[in-house]
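Reply to thread "Modeling small-molecule complexes from scratch"

Following up on the discussion above, here's a worked example others can learn from. I took a protein sequence and the SMILES for S-adenosylmethionine and predicted the complex. Inputs first:
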Amino acid sequence: MDIKAVGRIAVNTAKSLRRVVNSAASIFFYQPTGTEGEEYHKWYYNTFVWNKTTWLGVECWKSVADMWNYQEILFDVKPSLIIEFGSNRGGSALFFAHIMQRVGVPFKVLSVDISHQRLDPAATADPDILFIESSSIEPAIADRIEQLKKEYPGRIFAILDSDHSKDHVLAEMKLLRPLLSAGDYLLVEDSCVNGHPVLPGWGPGPYEAIETYKAEFPDDYTHDTEREDKFGFTFAPNGFLIRN
Ligand SMILES: C[S@@+](CC[C@H](N)C(=O)[O-])C[C@H]1O[C@@H](n2cnc3c(N)ncnc32)[C@H](O)[C@@H]1O
């Protein structure tokens, strides 16, 4: 090897070493101040990027970090029944169905909305999703879930994303109370409104519903704070719940 080649190797090795040392030092010293997650949350919400988010072309009104989190939960929990209250265009139901199709266990997605006029045909075409047009708090919905539990025995992943008023979310949580069992997962979405930290003037919403439910049934759920905190912000603060 000539002297020039040796020199080049030495220079490149020094550069790589400097990069490794600088990266390690900056990870240690260049720490967040504690407000970045909240500021990003406000930016994310207030720019409405969430309602321009699509899953394979179908609107899906979520934070993409939450969607990734749900993918991880679905893979770990492997539910046989997914219950979604609030379908909108059907993008989130389609996302859940696609993830579960890859997970590979038999499953059904039940997606309930008071109006299915806006449903995208790409979502309705999926044979693993059952769309029902109804208010989510109708007793008939509880009866349908009972039936589906018999057809698809196993874990349940339920996600509340319909009317974001406190009373409605509380009613949904109470409807699900006798239907969920230990180990099932409940996601209460949009608990970020009413100042947690967005839309401070909203009025009591999902966050307050979770608090009221907890006061009445303190032993029902454990907060999955590890997943909740994982990506720095979530549209579902306090809303990652595992049934005890
Ligand atoms: C935030 S959107 C759902 C977004 C959807 N999950 C997604 O991620 O793309 C809320 C939906 O809840 C529905 N909704 C409102 N009140 C409802 C009720 N009482 N029961 C069921 N759905 C309701 C609305 O029609 C609307 O489509």
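What I'd highlight from this example: The radius of gyration is 22 Å. The chain has two domains: 1-31, 36-243. Questions welcome below.
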